[in-house]
Amino acid sequence: MKRIYIEPTACTGCMNCILACIAHHKGVQSVLEIDFSDNDLEFANNVVLNTEGKIVPIFCRHCDQPECVTACMSGALTKDETTGYVICNQSWCAGCFMCVMSCPYGMIKPNKSGDVAIKCDMCLDREIPACVQSCPVQAISLIDVD
Amino acid sequence: MKYLIIGASAAGLSCARTLRRLDSNGEIVVISKDDMVYSRCMLHYFISDDRPLDKMRFVEEDFFDKNKVKWIRNTAVIEIRPFNKSVVTSDGAEHTYDKLLIATGATPVIPPIEGLAEGIEKRKDIFTLRDIGDAIKIKEAAKTSRQAVVIGGGLIGLDVAVSLNKQGVKVTVIEMKDHILPQQLDKTAAQRYERIFKDNGIDIITGQAVSNVIYGLSGKVKGVTLSDGSFVFADMIVVAVGVKPSFPRIDKCDLEIENGIIVDQYQRTSIQDIYAAGDACQSYELLTQRHILTPIWPSAVKQGQTAAYNMAGIGKPLIDNFGFKNSMKFFGLSTISYGYVEPPDNSYNVAICSGPNYYYKVVYKENVLYGAIIQGDISGAGVVGKLIQNKCNLSNKLVRNDWNNVFRLTYGDFFKQNQDGTFEFAC
């Protein structure tokens, strides 16, 4: 499978990755098509400023032993055996948020309406995840892992 | 190799799945009292009509076929015979094993309230909620019920209360402690929920015990009397004061049992080739550093997986059994809590950050977190959980060593990435 490798020192905090993620979840092609007055804009990645003042982009690892999947009591979260990606089937999710309770990196969260969980799906519908494609400084890149 | 698993819930099925991954040829048999696979955590959604029966399962539809697991359903194991390496089922059949997992879960506790036990046995209008059959009965009773009493203001009691409320039943919850959810929340966080419940028409009575169940002349439930002598009308009662481990009789053997079956970090019981996982077992827990019951879903799944490794002969201990975490959501308000929600003694301190829509609290001692309540926006809560689970020293992580900054910590403060892109927790 592929994983998004992070180079925090390269990140300038432009948040293009977050905008790209929003566009992906909205189902639009470009950030220009996002209506920012919408209350339901969703993104599954994050760029934070830590207490040392350093910018750290954080993306779901699609862990080998995903805590979120272990905690999922509805069966909505699964680690796909072929792709290796951890996918949330929102139509099956019961919104108990034991996944949010269990992810040590904070990479799964309630959606805006608080009904179901939302997380990174590696943009399965495209060759390269939207965030990686949109990063202008290569702070994130795709690597192959076993 | 023949693996026998008793129980088809979180621990049992996670064990079966893991066993098949580790041993492609072994024979795997699951025996369960349950006739279908369903998530106990979702039973209240069935009662409230939020989820149909065919959306209650937590594994894929073809789980047993795909994993080549034989499933003997609707069958209770009544006895385990370690000397024969076999179990006896309710139909009189005997099933042998090479390795056995006891994942039989728990049963509801019936408190010693006058008139309650015989009411449960004889009548149709007093219930507990543990299996799908209970949920079906409660849902049916709700159709004709006008007013219900729920005994116990814990997670299950409140879930039932909300689902009955949604079905148009007037509900009163009676909690003995001075606030609801005493195991999961402090008074402040609980009182937010109490207000929301009342706003939505659910009555909450705290600090009162039910002393008596009152029946009418026809034998039907009429209500309950409380410790202060007052009377609450009800035509149905749901008892939800907790659960206790439940497992089959074990023949002439020294199985080490306290509250549940004692297991080591490999999920082994004191009898060779018998393992236990989930609500039925008592295992070493990180926060308390003792062998205790850890009746939460994530623990059951991990224990089932760990048992599978060791049943398959791959020595693997469970090293992160953290039993004190809870997630809840009532009427749209989410809360996650970890560890101690109140300081256990005065050597602990508390930091609180709250506003109209949120309440965040941590309990700490020196530079280590021991508990937290995160109510409102719960995004990123898992980071706090990990800090508590790992007992991370936060001395270098708080700006000006001010504990009010603890709520601003994210994984960005503990970021460490390996070559293969996996994360570690640097603290």
From TrEMBL, chain A:
<dbReference type="InterPro" id="IPR050954">
    <property type="entry name" value="ET_IronSulfur_Cluster-Binding"/>
</dbReference>
<dbReference type="InterPro" id="IPR017896">
    <property type="entry name" value="4Fe4S_Fe-S-bd"/>
</dbReference>
<dbReference type="InterPro" id="IPR017900">
    <property type="entry name" value="4Fe4S_Fe_S_CS"/>
</dbReference>
<feature type="domain" description="4Fe-4S ferredoxin-type">
    <location>
        <begin position="84"/>
        <end position="113"/>
    </location>
</feature>
<keyword id="KW-0479">Metal-binding</keyword>
<keyword id="KW-0813">Transport</keyword>
<keyword id="KW-0249">Electron transport</keyword>
<protein>
    <submittedName>
        <fullName>4Fe-4S ferredoxin iron-sulfur binding domain-containing protein</fullName>
    </submittedName>
</protein>
<keyword id="KW-0408">Iron</keyword>
<dbReference type="GO" id="GO:0046872">
    <property type="term" value="F:metal ion binding"/>
</dbReference>
<keyword id="KW-0004">4Fe-4S</keyword>
<dbReference type="Pfam" id="PF13247">
    <property type="entry name" value="Fer4_11"/>
</dbReference>
<dbReference type="GO" id="GO:0051539">
    <property type="term" value="F:4 iron, 4 sulfur cluster binding"/>
</dbReference>
<feature type="domain" description="4Fe-4S ferredoxin-type">
    <location>
        <begin position="2"/>
        <end position="21"/>
    </location>
</feature>
<keyword id="KW-0411">Iron-sulfur</keyword>
<keyword id="KW-0677">Repeat</keyword>
From TrEMBL, chain B:
<keyword id="KW-0274">FAD</keyword>
<dbReference type="InterPro" id="IPR023753">
    <property type="entry name" value="FAD/NAD-binding_dom"/>
</dbReference>
<dbReference type="InterPro" id="IPR050260">
    <property type="entry name" value="FAD-bd_OxRdtase"/>
</dbReference>
<feature type="domain" description="FAD/NAD(P)-binding">
    <location>
        <begin position="1"/>
        <end position="286"/>
    </location>
</feature>
<keyword id="KW-0285">Flavoprotein</keyword>
<dbReference type="InterPro" id="IPR036188">
    <property type="entry name" value="FAD/NAD-bd_sf"/>
</dbReference>
<feature type="domain" description="NADH-rubredoxin oxidoreductase C-terminal">
    <location>
        <begin position="326"/>
        <end position="391"/>
    </location>
</feature>
<dbReference type="InterPro" id="IPR041575">
    <property type="entry name" value="Rubredoxin_C"/>
</dbReference>
<dbReference type="InterPro" id="IPR016156">
    <property type="entry name" value="FAD/NAD-linked_Rdtase_dimer_sf"/>
</dbReference>
<dbReference type="Pfam" id="PF18267">
    <property type="entry name" value="Rubredoxin_C"/>
</dbReference>
<protein>
    <submittedName>
        <fullName>FAD-dependent pyridine nucleotide-disulfide oxidoreductase</fullName>
    </submittedName>
</protein>
<dbReference type="GO" id="GO:0016491">
    <property type="term" value="F:oxidoreductase activity"/>
</dbReference>
<dbReference type="Pfam" id="PF07992">
    <property type="entry name" value="Pyr_redox_2"/>
</dbReference>
